[in-house]
Design the sequence.
């Protein structure tokens, strides 16, 4: 099931709504504390980038945004940055969606830019090591870009699993980069706090990416079997339609 050719969102709204509901419900699941803020980080962070992996950048952003917004309402204890916090998960899904579409340069340069913006703030320069954590996302994107171009659609389940994890990493690291900048501006946390999380954040982000792969790989395999196109199949269908259109134009010209 898919949308019209050329549409920004090619997935049926009902399917997007289901995943948004899953993200919203995840807000009620156990969460971990965020050092220095008194808030918590929900394990739904592993589900958010999958919206981009499944539905692409635009559909993924819509699913993540709706789900995260509802999640804020049902679990206000998880709200760290106020009523517009849902926009951070939207960015996560958005960048994971571009990685799924093989537009790796978009999340790569977005994460790189977010890291550079960090140093525009005096406090950011004092906590100079924080953007080094973003190397996880940059390396994951580079591996996908160079070696893993077709892993998401591979018949080898191991390659698909790694492909989902690497693609999701683009989203979870974007989430971290945007969240860090927001916290830097809103809370002005001292450098000691930022340095204290350096050993925790990489494990956390890698864990979210692996969690996304554990959940997402079976769904990438199973959903197309019930005629729900997700992931690279949406992109491949679009390519096939464009190729058919080009063929028709050639045939018309020949006639």
Sequence:
């Amino acid at each position: 099931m898919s949308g019209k050719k050329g549409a920004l969102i090619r997935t049926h709204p009902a399917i997007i709504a289901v995943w948004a509901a899953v993200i919203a419900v995840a807000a009620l699941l156990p969460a971990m504390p965020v050092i220095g803020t008194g808030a918590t980080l929900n394990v739904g962070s592993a589900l958010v980038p999958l919206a981009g992996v499944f539905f692409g950048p635009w559909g993924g952003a819509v699913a993540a945004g709706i789900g995260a917004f509802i999640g804020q309402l049902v679990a206000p204890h998880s709200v760290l940055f106020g009523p517009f916090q849902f926009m951070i998960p939207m960015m996560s899904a958005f960048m994971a969606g571009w990685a799924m579409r093989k537009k790796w340069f978009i999340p790569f340069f977005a994460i790189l830019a977010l890291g550079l913006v960090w140093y525009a703030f005096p406090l950011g320069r004092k906590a100079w090591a924080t953007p080094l954590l973003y190397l996880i996302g940059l390396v994951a994107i580079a591996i996908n870009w160079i070696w893993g171009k077709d892993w998401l659609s591979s018949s080898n389940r191991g390659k698909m699993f790694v492909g989902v994890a690497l693609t999701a990493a683009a989203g979870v690291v974007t989430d971290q980069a945007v969240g860090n900048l927001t916290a830097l501006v809103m809370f002005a946390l001292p450098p000691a706090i930022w340095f204290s999380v350096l050993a925790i954040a990489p494990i956390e982000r890698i864990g979210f990416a692996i969690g996304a792969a554990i959940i997402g790989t079976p769904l990438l395999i199973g959903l197309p079997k019930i005629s729900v196109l997700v992931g690279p199949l949406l992109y491949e269908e679009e390519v096939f339609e464009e190729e058919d259109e080009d063929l028709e134009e050639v045939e018309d010209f020949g006639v």
